[in-house]
Structure formats: structure tokens, C-alpha cells
């Protein structure tokens, strides 16, 4: 199997996913891998996971139903993609055999060595507060 992404660990940001080839705008990048469960089960797991270990839960709505993909125990690179207020990728729901899958697509051309980032859609994340302070101080 060909590998078109690699992960790196950095002290301040943790793991990140980096392209190893060129990607064009709207091209498929990665699937957010994990177990598809109900929103209720996702909320239950969120409370059960130890805070120091973290969790990789992605909540979404598809065709009138609320779901969660739990990638906490997944080894796929898609779960390591970081958040950004200036993303180069977007998460979309792709239906295969009537089952929703979370897939990342390029918002723009992505070069080899460039980190893949998407907007988690959660405005009050701790690292976003740091970024917004930096932008307001530099204005």
C-alpha cells in the first residue's frame, strides 16, 4: 500500500499529518477512521475516557440522525489531523453502502511537506483562544 501522508510529533502541537505528494483542490485526502456510534454513545464515551489520555470523537448529523465517529483506538492518520482557523482541508460526509464516512478533502492545492489542517468547528478550544489573542495583539 502506498503512503501519501506521514505523521510527526512536535512539542507544542503534538502529532500532525503531512502530505507527501501534491494534492489538488477538492481532491480526497483521508478518512477520519473509527467506530460509527450514536451521539448518545459518543457522549457516554466522552465522559468515560480519562482526561489525560484524550479522545478522538467527531460528532455530526447525517440525514436527520446524530452520530459520532470514535477514532480513539484507531491507528489511522486521519485522526491526527490538527485544527486550524485557516484550514487547507474540509471534512465532508461520504455515503458508502448507506453508511456515513467522514472524509477530508483539499480546499486548495497542498504541497509535499505541508501539514493537513481542518476547522474542527468548535470556536472555544483552548488553543484557539491563544491564537485569537496573538492576532488581536498584532493588529
Quick rundown:
Helix content is 17%, strand content 39%.
Q: What does the secondary structure layout of this molecule look like, with pairings?
A:
Blueprint: E1 5-10, E2 14-19, E3 28-31, E4 35-38, H1 39-48, E5 57-62, E6 65-70, E7 82-83, E8 89-96, E9 99-106, E10 115-118, H2 126-138
Parallel strand pairs: 7-10
Antiparallel strand pairs: 1-2, 2-10, 3-9, 4-6, 5-6, 8-9
Characterization of the model:
Residues 132-139 have low confidence and may be disordered. It is built from 2 helices and 10 strands. The longest helix has 13 residues, at 126-138. The termini are far apart. It has helices at residues 39-48, 126-138; strands spanning 5-10, 14-19, 28-31, 35-38, 57-62, 65-70, 82-83, 89-96, 99-106, 115-118. It has a 4-stranded mixed beta sheet with strand order 1-2-10-7, with no helix packed on it. A 3-stranded antiparallel beta sheet has the order 3-9-8, with no helix packed on it. The protein is an alpha+beta fold. The radius of gyration is 16 Å and the shape is globular.
Number of helices: 2
Shape: globular
Instruction: Tell me how many strands there are.
Output: 10
Order of helices and strands: EEEEHEEEEEEH
Rounded to an integer in angstroms, the radius of gyration calculated over CA atoms is 16 Å
- Would you tell me the overall average pLDDT? 85
Low-confidence stretches: 132-139
Work out the strand percent: 35-45%
- What is the helix content? 10-25%
Structural class by sheet pairing and helices: alpha+beta
Amino acid at each position: 500500500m502506498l503512503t501519501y501522508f506521514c505523521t510527526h510529533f512536535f512539542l507544542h502541537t503534538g502529532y500532525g499529518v503531512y502530505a507527501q505528494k501534491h494534492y489538488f483542490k477538492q481532491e480526497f485526502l483521508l478518512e477520519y477512521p473509527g467506530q460509527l456510534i450514536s451521539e448518545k454513545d459518543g457522549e457516554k464515551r466522552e465522559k468515560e475516557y480519562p482526561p489525560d489520555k484524550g479522545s478522538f470523537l467527531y460528532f455530526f448529523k447525517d440525514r436527520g440522525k446524530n452520530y459520532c465517529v470514535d477514532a480513539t483506538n484507531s491507528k489511522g492518520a486521519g485522526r491526527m489531523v490538527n485544527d486550524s482557523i485557516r484550514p487547507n482541508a474540509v471534512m465532508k460526509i461520504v455515503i458508502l453502502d448507506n453508511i456515513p464516512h467522514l472524509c477530508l478533502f483539499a480546499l486548495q492545492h497542498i504541497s509535499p511537506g505541508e501539514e493537513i489542517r481542518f476547522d474542527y468547528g468548535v470556536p472555544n478550544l483552548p488553543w484557539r483562544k491563544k491564537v485569537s489573542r496573538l492576532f488581536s495583539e498584532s493588529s
